[in-house]
Fold this protein.
Amino acid sequence: MAYSLARNLLFKLQPETAHELSLDTMSAAHRLGLLKPFMSKIQPLPVKVMGLDFPNPVGLAAGLDKNAEYIDAMGALGFGFVEVGTVTPKAQPGNPKPRLFRLPEKEAVINRMGFNNNGLDPLIARVKKSNFAGPIGINIGKNFSTPVEQANDDYRECLRAAYDYADYITVNVSSPNTPGLRTLQFGDALTTLLDMVKYEQNILAEQAGRYVPIAVKIAPDMTEDEVRLVANAIRSRKLDAVIASNTTLDRAAVQGLKYADEAGGLSGLPIREKSTKMIRVLADSLEGDLPIIGVGGIMNGDDAVEKIKAGASLVQIYTGFIYHGPALVRDCVEAIRFAK
């Protein structure tokens, strides 16, 4: 009820303003010790994935906390893990505003943020200071100004900087808002990138005396055959997980709605089935050799269970958190617990 009232007020503001205000308020409340009394205690539901221990299988997806400013507050809300970023080597402002749009009739969001972030050094500094007990993932990408032909240099720089401080690292090759990025999901571009990532992972693991898993986040706008090809490429390079999926360019589910024609990636309820279908194809292709993290359209506990039953080992929420607030975390954990 409290979040519903707050949401009604927040939704009167511009989406990006509301996003920043709500997160800043939650963070301040956490620092002052005011957040915990309002939260329902979430009993542990431990799971081991990628060799990591997760307090529960429900995480925060990348994109909400781009600069690692809210890790501890998100942990206080009950998330079992938090993925920050996408971070790029250099700070960049992202695309011009407005670049975030709500479609409340479908519990959806369109964004064309464009990897706006403060760069590697500030993000790493905040991750180092975090007191969150669960795994922290760092999602990495390329700068807008870096030609796609040189994208591997940006990913390499991010890997090297993040390795000592991340519990896992996600290679984001699927945002629709950085020109050319999605071409890295296919053919020689993908295999070259994955070979570089695995090579760097092996070197860094030896240097650090610690193995940090690497996941690859892919887009939902692929044919089934394309999904299988990508899965096989990731599997053959012995990377550690696949995250399915990022936002979609498909507008079929929101045609005729205000903002439906805005450029950017669509997230929320309209991509639930598309994401779940992708997870099923990945599960069939990967045959249990590496885990899947399911994300896309989780608006209640049943949606989270659907992803798990389709083959995901963990789930992440983003747009559902905007529409349903912190109670969604507990609902998802409890639904998964009951389903087991």
The chain has a mean pLDDT of 93.
